Every structure is written in structure tokens, then in C-alpha cells.
Amino acid sequence: MIKHSRQRNKVAQRILWSFVIASLIPVVILGVLSFHQVSQQLYQQTYSVLQNSSKDYGLRFIDRLVLAESALRLLANRIERSSRGLRDQNLFRDQKLHKQFNDLAIMTKNGQRASLLGDTRMVPYLTEAEIEKVRSGLTLIKPVDSDELGIKQIWIALNFNENTPDAGILMAELHPETLWEFENIGINQLLVLTDVGQSWFSSLPNTFLPKPLLTEFLNKFSGNFNHKLGNEDYLGGFWQAPLGNMFASPHIIIVQAQPKSVALNAIDFFTKIYPPLVLLTVLIVAFLSTKLIAKYLSPLSVLKKATERVAEGQFDYQVDIKSKDEFETLGDSFNEMTSRLRSQFEIQSTMAEIDRQILSLLNADEIVETALTRLPGIMFSDLISIAKFDADKQFIKAVHTRRNNQHFDLLDQSLELTAEELADLQNKQGGVLEVESHDDLPVYLKLLKLTGNWHFMIIPVVINENVSATISFAYQQNTPISKELKTIARNFGDRIAVALSNAAWEEKLFHQAHFDGLTGLPNRLVLNDRLQQEIARAKRDSKQLAVLFLDLDRFKNVNDSLGHAAGDALLKQIAEHLSNSIRTTDLVVRMSGDEFVVLITDIDNPALINKIAGKVLKAVDTTTVVAGQSVKSTASMGIAIYPIDAETSEDLLKHADSAMYYAKNDGRANFRFYSAEMTETALENIKLEHELRTAISKGEIIVYYQPKFDSGKQIIGAEALIRWNHSELGMISPAKFIPIAEQSMLIVEIGRWMLEQVCEFVKSFINLGIEPVPISVNISGVEFDRPDIVIKTAEILKRTRVNPDFIELELTENVAIGNRELCIERMHQLKALGLRLAMDDFGTGFSSLSYLQDLPLDVLKIDQHFIRELETGINSQAIVRAILALADGLHMKVIAEGVETEAQLIFLQEHQCQFFQGFLFSRPIPASQFVQLLLEKQPISA
């Protein structure tokens, strides 16, 4: 049974595999490291032995040659001392001589050869160079091809008489066995070759050496190699014997090699024996692990079985483990846990049943009846009482009680609650109130008329921050109520509160999801649903409907200057005006922020749209007092019509939104109908906005300067004007890209760049030797409204180190329409930086000139609209005269902009206007041309 359980026990399997792997990994690692270490040592040892053997062999080889040379010289001396000379055969019968030499020969001075022991034909010829070397006293070593493969005959030659070189040459063929020492080679293979690559001896199966290996032999004095020779891999060592230092012979290279299989025989043995050892180790570990697992994890199988029983719902299942270790402790804990689970499951099961009934019933009395029936068994109470309150009027409406399975209604008429009783319950909101039995009980407990010692646990039921009911559990035994029981009671109190307030919550959530929290108007969700319904109805009845998209003009100024609270107050009043301006069949929706949508339905006559649109704009066009300030409000509106402009709610809203932006660009406080061209223009504007973001870095934004002149046509300054030289479209009109820059807030970055460029330009006058003249820079309303306008301007002045006396900021009248005090304060701060201030386009923006006397201005610029109409418009002439008189009274300079004709100039001069700007004098020109005009200092002819 244990074995079978262990086979299915995944933990046992994991532990078994862990033990096996834990033992296998070190053994494998140790084996790999050992194999690697042994291999390296065997390689090095083999290389060292072979290289040393090559050197020893080479030294012995030289010794044998020296010995042969000595023996040959001794023989020459004996022949010379013998009375019979070469005819003395006793000289050649020495056995040592025959072991050392295979043949002896004499070569006379005239080149005749004669063998002393064998066939004269086998005696090799000597070259003239070799004969000269011998006659010079050197001993010659000469290899000669033989019949035996891989072995050359080695002859040694020396002067027959050292003192008489012409006496002849004594030659001897060295005996191969004595010379090469066949018996001492052993298992090694021997290769002897000269330092020019000529082989003298080779025991290798294939005497052909690979070129890289031969090159290594010839270029190194000694070394080792691992190479394939023939069909077998060899390990070898080599050493160069300096034979040429002692004989007339080349140096020789001694190579000894062993087959790799022989040299690394120990590795093969290790490879054969190691896997069985690893397997044996793993089997031992597996066997021991199995025994240990069987002993220690049997309790785990018991716990697993118990867990399965609990999962099947058998909470009364108990385990019996007597292992005297942690498993026994775990078994005891498991038994305690199952007991607690059994209790919790019974509680949760009962609570779930109560939840289902509470959430499915709308009748409060049925909910109370369910609670009275179910809760006593859960809470182990002797009595349960539920009292319903009217917290606003502070009285008890009803009390329901259950005791001993009997239900009692204890109150037929209302009973007042004290403020203290309500306060106690309110303070225990989210908690539990415990009361001991005494005479001063709350009125909802006194009604129970219980005698003896009772302990009460009271749960306040709170709905919308008011105590609406209490649930009281009474216990006859005065025993402490556990924290767990209090939590259960509190949870049930929350469920009762949810059940009683379900309808109210649903209504509240519906209102929050579908109506704006500030204005109370329907929101986007309602609009989408209603618009789809109205589109379907209009399609069915073949009628039209219109979507009016409104955006308040300059609403941001109200938030920035008067605060968001004032903005919210204004939005609520605008919402009320809009609601009062439409028909009951129409719909007003607040989309977001200062955006509203009006849905006009049942349109039979298109003229109705214009009428309602004008009425809506008029409703918004009011002066409202918020935060103690009078605020003028207007709106720009776009109109899209179904089915002319679009057939879906999404497209109608999108197109109305596009038309609204056109209304803003056309001067605000008006409305525009959607047209297909607007979509194309909108896409074009999006493309231009994207390209405008990189125009400065690409060097496409440039500054032109339009000079200003006095009556003598001398330059007294200039206005900096921005130009966009698009890489593909060429020059783009400022009237096209400036509105895009303002809407996207790019105008802030462009304006700061423009100011910095002008400052650097003015500063360059000194280096050019030009007397500086004031340069004016236009500041948009978007820039002026930013709180950091003064800080950023000061930073640019400090960074460029320009004299601020020559920098003039041109503001439009519209900047003063918002918060008057903030506008004046900001102007004074800019003046404090040393800058001059000018009012551009004067005469087009103020509804009253009373502001003008408070603004710290240096210059007024008469709008070019009035200058153009000087020749034809009497009103324009009157306005220009008034502005000139007003500026004179306020001690301000006046510049007339847009002067294009001599008639305009004469009129202005006649009315004491002293400064001018316009095409009559100069168009806007690049910086280089303006500098040239300053250098010339000549009047400009008209």
C-alpha cells in the first residue's frame, strides 16, 4: 500500500529525482573534470617523454657517429703502421669492426674506389665538394639510398692520413642495427630527417609528412605535435641534433611518435569504467532515497487523502499520524483546521442563503422575516430584535423580535429616540455596540422587557450616513462575544443596509453614470444613446436633426485668473441658460470641460436650425458675476446636420466639432455649419502641426524684419516677423500656421525662440558698428497668459546679455480682456526687466478704453484696418484722430501700421503722427538686408 502510494505521490517522485540528480550532477561534473585533467596530464606527459626521447636518441646517435669516426681513424692508423698495408687481412677480421661497419672502402687521390670487405660497386661516389671537405680535415657523413624502405645507408669518410690529404680517403658504411638501435626504439615510431627535409630513417607506416608538420619540424629547434599520419592519429616530439657542428653533414631532426590510442590508453580505460560507476552511484542513491521516502513521506500520503476528503465536503474527516515529528504536528493542525472549516462552512452556507433572499426580495418585511428566522442559529443567540428608525425625525418606526422560534411585533406606534442613543449608534458605525443588562437601556432594548442578566450585541445599520435600523442579539449567559462572531454580525448588518438601500443606490448610480455631477446635465453616455435613437427616428420619419457643438471662448482665462471654483460657477450658470434656451424635445449635454452639445430634433424647416443656433449663442452671450468679478461669456459653435453631413452619431459629433474650430478661427462668438472642405482642411492642419513641431530644428523657421520710420523716412526700429520656409511647400503664410501653433501650444516654444533670436540680433549690432535700434517682438495671448512668461523672458535676457532698452514686446488688446489686475501686474513685471511695451492692433479689441490709462504702455500701434480706410472711410478717420489725441494725452508714442499710400501718409502727418510702418516704406525683409539699410543710414524714397 505504501509502495503504491509512493508511486503516485508526486512529492515523493520529485524528492527521489532531486536526490538522484543531486548525486548525478557532482559525479558527472567530477568525472568530466577528472577526464579533462587526466587527458591534459597524459597529453603533456606523452609530449614530454617523446620530446626527451628524441633528444636522448639524438645525443646517442651523435655519440655513435663519434665512436664510428674514432674506430675508423684507429683502423687507418693500424693500416698505415702495418708493413703489408691494405693487404694485411688480419686487420679486417676484428669482430667489433664487423659489428660497427657493413663495408670498408678506400678512395685514392685520383678517385679510384676499392671495397675492402665487399663489392666495390656498392661504394658510393663522392662529389668534388664532399672530397674537398674531407681533404680539409672534416669527417663526412653521407646518406645513400638503400633497398630497405625508409632507411638510408650512412657512410662515413675521412682522410686516410691526417697529415697527408692526398694519401686517399677511408670510407665505411655504418652497420644499420648498430647505428639506428632498432632494439631500443620500443613502441615509439622513429623518424630521422635533415634540416632540409631529407629523410634518413623512418619507421612510420607512411613516410609522407604533411607540409604544415614538415614546416614545423624545419622551423623549430624542438617541440611536439598532434597530427594524423597515414590512417592513424599520432602524438610526437622532435629535437634537432647539431650534427653539422661536428661533421661535414647537415643537422638532423629526431622525431619520435606514438599512436594516440596507445599514448592515451589510460583515458580509454577511464571512459569505459566511469559510466558504470556513475550508474552504480545513481542506483545506490535511488535505492536509499526510496527507503527514506517510504519512511518519511507516508504521513504525506495520509494528509493528501484527508485533503481530498475535505475537498469532497467531508469536514468531519480526521487524520491519525504518530510520527513524533513535524508531520504529527501538521496532522494535529489539519484536524483543527477541518473543525474550523466545518463551522465556517455552515456559517457561510447560511449567510449565502440569506444573501440570495435579501438580494432577490424588494419587500423589506420579507427581508426582516428571513433575518429573524436564520440569524439566531448562526449567532448562537437567545433572542434577536430588529428595530427600524426614522433618523431624520428621531423615532422608532417598528421593532421585530424572535425568541424560542416565536415572532413578536412589539411596537404599534412611533417612539422617540434620544439624541444620545442616536449618537452612540452613529459612533459605532462600521462596528459593534455591546450593552450589559441594566436599568438605563436604550429604548429599543427596553421594549423587549427582558428580566435577569442579559448581554446585548447591537449592530447599527447605516444608510446614507444615517442610522436606519439596529440588529440586536441577546445572550442570557454573560460570556464574552468572540471577535469572529462580531465580524459575522457586522457583515450581516452591512448586508441588511445594502438590501434596504438597494433601490436608492440604483437610482443614485444611474444618475451618476448618466448625468454630469457639476451642472446636472446629461453626459456623453446619454447623448450617444439618445442620438442613436433620434437618428433611427429621423430616418424612419424622413426628417432632419442637428448637432450643435459649443465651446466657451477664453474659458481658460477664467480658471487661470479667478480659480476653478469661479469656472465651475460659470459653467453651472451657462448650463442653466442653455437648458432654458431650447425646446423640451431637444437635449443639452455637457461633454467635458467647457464643451456642450445641443441636440435639435424634429426639423422640418432648415431655417429652424439658424433660429435655434442664434438663440443658443445669445443665451450664452451674457455677463455673469462670479467670484465678485463680472465675466463676459461667449461661445463658438459648430453645426452638423443629419443626414446631410453624416449618418452616424460618431461622425455627426466629429463634424460638428470640426465646424466649431472654424467658428473659433473666424473670430469666436459665432457658429459655422460643417462642410466637407473642413475635413480636408483639418487633415491639412494636422499635417502642418506635425511638421511645425520640427520646423525650428530643421532651420525652416526664420525671422524677417519690417522697418519702422519717422517723418523724415529714417529707420527708428523694426518689427520682428516670423516666417516659415517649408522645405516642400515654400513660404507658408503666418495667417495659416500661427493659429495652428496657438491651438497646439507650439506658439510658446516658437515665441521664446523668436525672442532669443531677436536678442542675439540686437546684440550683433555692436559687433557690426551699428547704433542699435529697438526691435519689437509679438507676444501672443497664449504666451502672455502663461504664469511663467516673466521668468522665461528674464532667463532669455540674462542668457543673451542684450540691453533690454532695445527690446520691445507687442501685445494685443485681447490680453487685457480677462483678469485686469493680473494683466496689469504682469505688464509691470515685464517693464521691470527694462523692456518696452507696445499695444498692437489698437482699436479692435476693447469694449471700453477705460483700461488703457492703467496699462504701463510705451507705444500704441494703430491697427492697419483703420489705416486702409483713411481715404474712403470717415469713421476710420475719426477713430485714428481719436487714438492720436488719446495717445498724446497719455504721453505715448503712436505708430501707424499698414501705411501703403502717400495719401495715407499725408493724413497721418497732418494729425501729428510721427512714426510709420508699411509697404510704402518697406516690406518685411531678411536680417541681412535690414542690417544693410542700417549701415547705409539713408532716407528711403517713396
How would you characterize the overall build of this protein?
The chain is α+β, with helices and mostly antiparallel strands and 942 residues long. It folds into four domains: 46-265, PAS domain (Beta-Lactamase), CATH 3.30.450; 361-507, Beta-Lactamase (2-Layer Sandwich); 515-674, Reverse transcriptase/Diguanylate cyclase domain (Alpha-Beta Plaits), CATH 3.30.70.270; 699-936, EAL domain (TIM Barrel, Alpha-Beta Barrel), CATH 3.20.20.450. Helices cover 47% and strands 23% of the residues. It is built from 30 helices and 34 strands. The strands form six sheets. An eight-stranded mixed barrel has the order 25-26-28-29-30-31-32-33, surrounded by four helices. A hairpin with a 6-residue loop joins β3 (140-145) and β4 (152-159). α10 (326-360) packs antiparallel against α11 (364-379). It is flat. The N and C termini lie far apart (119 Å). Residues 1-7 and 938-942 have low confidence and may be disordered.
